[in-house]
Design goal:
mainly alpha, 6 helices, 73% helix
C-alpha cells in the first residue's frame, strides 16, 4: 500500500515522536536517555523511518513546562497514529512500536526510571492507543 503524506502530516509525525522524547526528558529522564531515544527514532524503518530521519525544522515544541509540552505532544501522538492508520495500519503499528522503543530507551537509560517518568511513559502509551 502506498502512503501519501502532506508536509503537515510529516510535521505531525516528527513532532509527536520527538516530542515524546522531549516530554520524558522534561519529566525527569536523564540527558543520556534523550540521546538514546533520539537514536531509536532515527533507527526506524519504513515510511515512518524516512519521515523521522529527515532533518526538518518543523518540529514545534513550545511548552514552557511539562503540562504545556504534554498539551502539544499527547494530541500529536494520537493524530499521527490516526493519520497513518487511515492509510496503512501497518505503518501506524510501526510508528507506535518506534515511539515505544524510544520511550523505553529514554526512560531506562540509567536504570529504573523515576515515578514521574514512568507515569509520563504511561500517558504517552495511552495517547498512542487513543485512536
Amino acid at each position: 500500500m502506498s502512503i501519501t503524506l502532506t508536509d503537515q502530516d510529516k510535521s505531525t509525525i516528527r513532532t509527536a515522536a520527538y516530542g515524546a522524547v522531549a516530554l520524558l526528558s522534561a519529566a525527569g529522564a536523564p540527558h543520556k536517555g534523550s540521546s538514546q531515544g533520539s537514536i531509536a527514532l532515527t533507527s526506524a524503518t519504513g515510511v515512518v523511518g524516512h519521515v523521522l530521519s529527515t532533518r526538518a525544522r518543523d518540529i514545534q515544541l513550545d511548552g514552557k513546562n511539562v503540562a504545556e509540552l504534554a498539551d502539544q505532544v499527547l494530541p500529536a501522538l494520537t493524530a499521527a497514529i490516526t493519520l497513518l492508520g487511515a492509510q496503512d495500519p501497518a505503518e501506524a503499528a510501526n510508528f507506535r512500536d518506534t515511539v515505544l522503543v524510544a520511550v523505553d530507551a529514554t526512560a531506562g537509560a540509567k536504570g529504573d526510571p523515576s515515578p514521574a517518568v514512568t507515569a509520563m511513559a504511561r500517558k504517552i502509551t495511552a495517547a498512542l492507543d487513543a485512536s
